[in-house]
Amino acid sequence: MNSYDHNPIVEMKDIEKHFGPVIALAGVSFDIRPGECHCLLGDNGAGKSTFIKTMSGVHKPTRGEIVFEGSQMNFASPRDAMEAGIATVYQDLAMIPLMSVTRNFWMGREPVRKVGPLKFMDFAKANEVTMAEMAKMGINLRSPDQAVGTLSGGERQTVAIARAVYFGAKVLILDEPTSALGVRQTANVLATIDKVRKTGIGVVFITHNVRHAAAVGDRFTVLNRGKTLGTAQRGQITPEELQDMMAGGQEMVALEGSLGGTV
Amino acid sequence: MTDANAAIDERVKETSRLRKALIRPELGAIVGMIAVFVFFFAFAADSGMFNPQGVLNWSTVSAQFMIIAVGACMLMIAGEFDLSVGSMIGFAGMSIALMSVTLHWPVWIAILVTFMLCVSIGALIGYTVVRTGLPSFIVSLAFLFILRGFTIFFPQVIERRTIIGGISDVAEGDWLAPVFGGKVGGWIFDWLAEIGMIATFSRGTREGQPIVDGIPMLIVWALLLVAVAHVVLTRTTFGNWVFASGGDAQAARYVGVPVSRVKILMFMFTAFCATVFATCQVMEFGSAGADRGLLKEFEAIIAVVIGGALLTGGYGSVIGAALGALIFGVVQQGLFFAGVESSLFRVFLGVILLFAVILNTYIRRIITGEN
Prior knowledge:
The structure holds two protein chains of two kinds. Chain A is an alpha/beta fold. Chain A has helices at residues 48-55, 78-84, 101-106, 123-136, 153-166, 183-198, 210-216, 239-247, 250-259; strands spanning 10-19, 22-32, 37-42, 63-68, 71-73, 86-89, 112-115, 118-121, 171-175, 202-207, 219-224, 227-233. Chain A has a single domain, classed as Rossmann fold (3-Layer(aba) Sandwich), CATH 3.40.50. A two-stranded antiparallel sheet of chain B has the order 1-4. A two-stranded antiparallel ribbon of chain B has the order 2-3.
């Protein structure tokens, strides 16, 4: 699927966000189209988190507009954004480790089986769907009853992604999904992103790792000190250039030289 | 990708069915219960502890613990504490006594109004915790003193004493009082006596009647509360919200779980359980005392923790809490039957608590993968 045939699902235009005297975002534009993986790169403190929280309804922008499927949007809460189809998978707040995979997967949207006036949770259906959705993502669970705490970090991210996809996300925002993972698990999560993208969902992949971004990204936007340094398509820019833009140019070149180009 | 995961799966050992069946939150309490029963069979079997009267004795005491443990368990799983349970018991009992004896209200109205009053106080505690974001430990500690203070103040001012009796007389013929103070299943015991399974009184006014004449409603309430709470917690949508609220309130809110409502409802349920306890006690004793329910909040919490619940919330079992309460009751009464100095009860309890919690922590790590 070529994503440029489609109109953007979400378009953020000149977003500014001020926290008191601090200007966290100073005019950021960004859009996401169906079936693409748009990487948002930036060093710590560049404004990535503020930006995605604005997109997912946690923060209201100080200035600028958010256009969702062609009409201007004003999300009052993360719940609103979620209902509209913008799902966010936070790095550490995604899952409750003490609870089973099924209970986590359906949390807040439990399937109900009514017996008289009583609302029971339909565990047969819940377990079946959970197993099937996880299998689609390439994870074969031992049992849907197993606690999320027994899963690896990559598998936990995958449960959260599978949940968002199952509940009809149109845009999936992943907040540094690979930053705490090992090599193999990172590869698994990147493969999952690829699968999700192929179903027509727009993926916003936030990372500060250029190699992870380059592996799956269709477009790349770099944030630096609250500003975008432009959006580039795959093939128009090299990973080295992205790295330089994130770090702000000259100093990084000098640093990289002394470290033998390993950063 | 599937291959990669197959490789990971290889490293997961096949777990046997026995192990699967054993590794559950209640295991610590089950082991503790078996240990306690074996101990008393060995040392107190001939003391009358296991004849019908003896069984009824420790069952009743266990049921008392069970009623408050159920409330404390649900609340703890939802991530909160209530230290005001003991004071609430005293307060509820005194409320019923003052309304029925001093104000001459019908007993059923006194009971219903007390239930409404206490559950509202539970809601107030919950609301305060949720709105201020203060630890429930502190908020409910404040209510421990507030409620106990009122429990002493009102009878002092109105009746100039702190124990109010005469409830049995005013409860005579009331339709609601027997629901808390009555007994059920008398005909079973009549029949059992008839076929010689249980002994009968051989002299006195009750000659020929079975020595156990029914199951106290206290026990019925305990079993009912345990069953309902267990089903709600493990099988319903609301139960999932209780786990989620205690497991990670923020993550639960992000997916739309009404965390505040769940927590307030659990505070109300805890207050409800305390009031059931108080009403049964008042109807049984025929009196209310300002010192009733002292330290009950800790006994409830101990039973819940023996039962495998995590103090910080998000994990636990009502069945475990009920078994914890049973251990509690059997040990307390068993030491009496065995003729052991009753002060050793606390030593025993401390030791059981420690061992159960160590075992529970180990099991929980296996289940949840915590480090």
